[in-house]
Structures are given as structure tokens and as C-alpha cells.
Prior knowledge:
The protein is of the alpha/beta class. Helices cover 28% and strands 21% of the residues. The chain starts with 5 loop residues before the first strand and ends with a helix.
Amino acid sequence: MAQPTMMFYHDGRHPLIYMYEPPIQREEYEAGVDELVGTPIQAIMFCLGDGRTVLHDTTVGELWGDNVEKWPHLIFRRANQNARHLIDEVEDPLTIMSQRAHEKGMLIYPTLLVQQGRGPRDEDVRCSNFRFENQHLEIGGMGGIDPSFPGLTCLDFKHEEVREERFALIEDTLLRYDIDGFELQLNYFPYYFHPDEIASGCEIMTAWVRRVHGAVKASGADRELVIRVPANVDGCMSVGLDVKTWIKEAIVDVLVGQTFSGPELVDTMANFRSLVQAAHGYPCRVHGTIQSHVDSDRLQEAPIEIVRAAACNYWEQGIDGLYLGHWFGNWPYESTFYEKLRELPHPDIMATQDKYYYLPTETGRYGQPSLEPGLSMQVPADLSAKGRADILFSISDDLSRWGGAHRIHEVIIRMRVMNVTEKVRLSFRLNGQELPDSSARIINEMYRMKAPRYRTGSGYWFIWRLDQNHWPVQGANNLQIVLLEDDPDTLPAIYLRDVEVEIKYLKGRHFNRGQDTDLGPYEQMMI
């Protein structure tokens, strides 16, 4: 079996079983494959429902919603209606997806959301009876834990009953379906043990992963075990996932690193180097998860320029492939979606294409985005408290090379600082060089009447179109913002909210960009 370098996570719900009015037809369900045919995607990572319950004809687990009498959530009801119809009247949903993927020359790996919390029975209609009836098996079941701990109602993997229930669902899928491998999504609620039992938990989890890997290989020698984890080795270890041992024992075929999984945000600065270094010299491949959701006041989904910036930064780190996570926010898929997919496997092609490096920040939906273990955010950064902020960012672009070839149109850096007034004085330095006031453009957005998506108030944008002497370098860069003088008459803390770097290329030496203002309307018509 060919080893896929481009994997696409399909959650099986949002762009599929949620969307079609019951009774869903086979052809409608097959759209989960058909919409990706002709793209660089080689493997569909197809989610098995909610993880606690599933949306296929399991013989050991529980079907989503079969324990619900009255539905408080209509879309969740529709998922149950459509799954039940396919199982009873058409064909098992996972069989449909598997057959269609193979007909179209694509691989398929079922994905299990291994861990998830639990809500009240009358509200959490996606939950299983196993979970409701075995609350003593939860991490919070032994007591002595902070009620705010995010894994409080997650299953505690020290219990054999927990590991057996999860394994049975995996083994049943391996034995009954024509699939190409299996994915454990361990980055969704990445809490598996009581915080005081992480060290002993590492050995327990490694033994369980070893057993799953054995079952995968026993069901088909060419089948692969893919495991999605936090992007940082130390972050993995902090929750009981000893990925270095998995790699050394060859009990994982592909490790998929991921950042900002909860808010599903694109992260052009994601760092997979610790995973790549750990896997060096071993047969395990490392994929980086690339997402497309921005959720800024101006953008919902990432334009192609942001996707390129992220992908090129990832490839530069020596990863073996890309894993497209949570791209279903682009559905229904249109030309811009396919345009983004086309270039992703080719960093050499993207090298001289426009890029837009965007640092994750507070968003409309997530004022404080949830983070993976071992991960922190650089922005927002409080300037009032510390008097300065040092921001590290990386770019893959070799500006020296392409500037020498006269291919660079412009390099722009943008920063938005909140709660400043006209009296506030700031200093901006890039790699130790002061960014000159002479080339700065300052935009007052202390108050906005409207915005493309949602309003953010009290901000000033500081924008530079950098000359060649102030360009960022390929690789790591340091941006320093210093608060020189505050406004004594204001109370709100001044903080850096946004950092963006945009690089625009020419198609060739002396090419126009289409919007060049040096040409009048007649001259533009002539070219």
C-alpha cells in the first residue's frame, strides 16, 4: 500500500449526515468521497461519529442517539435518523464510504475520538449508556481533583474496563470493514489519567497503544496505525502519551501533530520539530495538521495566502506529510477550496507565491482559545504590565534570493495595539532594527461602526511596507514592541493583539500586479 502524504479529516457529520434531509440517499452520503476526488488528497480520515457513540452498524458499541426518547437538539436527531435509515434500508454507512473511496482510488482510515467528557443525560444526547452507567470510571471518580479540571468527566485509562471498551470498538471495525488503517484521535480532550498519576499512566497507555497496533497489523499487514497528538513531545508526556517510546518500539506508523485543535484555528507558526526529531531514523512518519479557520474580525476561513504560509512553514521543518484538520468549515466546497488544496503538496511551487503569516490570537468565538498541553500563545501580549513584548515568528520565504531576482513586490508587517490613544508612544524593532516612522502607516480604529465579521474596539493598526534593509529573514525572526510613554489619563491596559506578515510576489521580473496605481486607466487597458 502506498504511504499517503496528504490526509484529510472528514468528521462524517457537519458537511455530510447533518446536511441532508432524511432519508439520506446513498449518492448523498457518497459525496463525502466524491467532493475530494481529483485533489491531492490520498487518504480520508473518516470519523466514527462522536466516539462515545458511533454512526455505523457497530456490533459492540452503541449507535448515536438510540438511547434518546426526546431530542433537545434537532441536528443530532437528524444524524440518528440518517444513520438508522442507511443501516436499515440501504447499507452500512462505513461500508458505503469504504467502497466509494476505493472505487475512486483513495485510502480510508476510520478515526476514533478516543476521549471525551460527559454531560447530563437529558442534554448529552450523543453520549452512550456505557458512559452514563459507569461514571465511577471517570478521572474525577476518585475525588480529590479540582472541579475546573477539563478532563474531570473523561474516562480514566487506568481502569481495564475503559481500555477494553475502547479496544473492542477498534477491533470490531478492523475485522468487519475493508479499510486501510485506523486513526486514534488522542488530541481531542487529551486527558487520560488523574493529574497525580501521569507517570504510571504513561506505561498503561503505551501498553494499550501496543495492543491496538498489534490488532491493526493482525487485521492486515499493510494497514497503518495513525495517532493524532499534541504537537510537542513534552506536551504529550505531560498527559501520559509517551510518543518517544511508541516511536522506538515501532508501535505507531504515523504521528500527527496538532495545535489549536479545540478552536480549530489555523496556526502558521505551529512547531512540529520535537516530533520530527524524535522520529528521525525510525520508520514512523510525522504529519503536521494544517487547519483553515481564522475567525478574525475580517476573515472566517483562511485565504490561500495564509494556507500557503502555514504549509511552507510546516514542510520547512522536515515533516513527511500534511493532515488537513477541520476543513469542513469550507463546505459547500467551491473553487477557492480546491485552489487551496492544489498547491499544498508542493512547497517549491508555493515558494514564490503570495503568503500571509498570521499569529493566532483572540477571536470572535474564542476570546481565549483552548490550547494543547505544552502550548502557549504569544498574542495577546500585555504591554502595560511588562512595558514590552517580544514576538517570535518564522517565515519560509528566502527574501534575499527572490529579492535579488526582482520577484518581490512588497513585504508588509502589521500590528494592532489595543487601548492606545494619540498620546501613546511605542517603539517597534525587527531583528534589532528600528522600524522607521517614515515608512509607517497608522490607522485609527479606536471606534468602528461596523466590521466584516464582528467589531473589535480601541485599536490602532501600525503598518510598514518594508524596504529591503528591513525585511525579515528566512527562519526565525524577533519582533520587539516597547511602550515608551503611556497616556496618564486612561485606565485600560495596552496590549498587542495582532501580528501579521504579508509577502507579495511578482510573477516575473518587472511584471505588474494588476492593481498598480502608477498606471492610469488607459495604460492598464493596454497591458
